[in-house]
Amino acid sequence: MKYPTIEDVIGKTPMVALQRIGAADNAQRSNVVLAKLEGNNPAGSVKDRPALSMIQRAQERGDIRPGDTLIEATSGNTGIALAMAAAVKGYRMVLIMPEDLSIERAQTMKAFGAELILTPKSGGMEYARDLAEQMQREGKGRVLDQFANPDNPRIHYETTGPEIWADTKGRVTHFVSAMGTTGTITGVSRFLKEKNPAIRIIGAQPSEGSRIPGIRKWPEAYLPKIYDPTNVDELVYVSQDDAEEMCRRMAREEGIFAGISAAGACWVAQQIAQRESNATVVFVVCDRGDRYLSTGVFPA
């Protein structure tokens, strides 16, 4: 008998209906808001899907081989997922991240055996990405580059999108996703639009001055190459305060322990539901709340 490995249990995550947040309005308008629980993946986030996809497919093409050094700039979730996938596949993983990100993320990456390089907070992810490219030019390893690697959105086209379509029996009318690397929204949008071009795709972006881990508004020069703006129908801006408050509400009112970017997507999903009728709104709960405990978003 062949038993499943950790790779086999990535994806196929559950989707649940919100029961209390926005309940009165949703009932009146005949709407349902559904949360896809990507924190149920083995390394705790939606990034498990592209992390394994990028390593596995690069290996299949002969671009890398077990024992090689992989390098990636990451704000957290991709780094954790890549550290897990590299451990499974037998690679040395070097992760570059700004120094101000939560301590839980750094500790989790190290637990999977990854090596960390912390960059100045002032440089943000842009500096981390530049350093990763510099290290590759110096021959110190291979950059997978989640921001430009087509294997990132491809896995969402092949798995996440079909799961949403199947779990809603094709009734999904709106899809909401936080936008960081944009792999999730790009891949899911492509699939859903092929099934039904009328489905609206909404991206959650941070409002001016907000710092929400996992949601980014990139400068033009750093806009992810995988991003196709024609796949996104609308951008809705969420403030840091609204995202953090929704984070607490999701835990207290729904029993969904989620991260801040997931809560930002939930807040946007609620805005969409408030203006629609007979809608099935799906948003991605991209990770779990336990990797944000040190940020102070949850009461001590």
From TrEMBL:
Domain Tryptophan synthase beta chain-like PALP: 6-287
Gene3D superfamilies hit by this protein: 3.40.50.1100
Pathway: Amino-acid biosynthesis; L-cysteine biosynthesis; L-cysteine from L-serine: step 2/2
Keywords: Amino-acid biosynthesis, Cysteine biosynthesis, Pyridoxal phosphate, Transferase
The protein's Enzyme Commission number: 2.5.1.47
Catalytic reactions of this protein: O-acetyl-L-serine + hydrogen sulfide = L-cysteine + acetate
GO molecular function annotation: cysteine synthase activity
Essential cofactor(s): pyridoxal 5'-phosphate
Enzyme class: transferase
NCBIfam families in the cross-refs: cysKM (TIGR01136), cysM (TIGR01138), PRK11761.1 (NF008735)
Similarity remark: Belongs to the cysteine synthase/cystathionine beta-synthase family.
Name of the protein in its database record: Cysteine synthase
Native source organism of the sequence: Rhodoferax ferrireducens
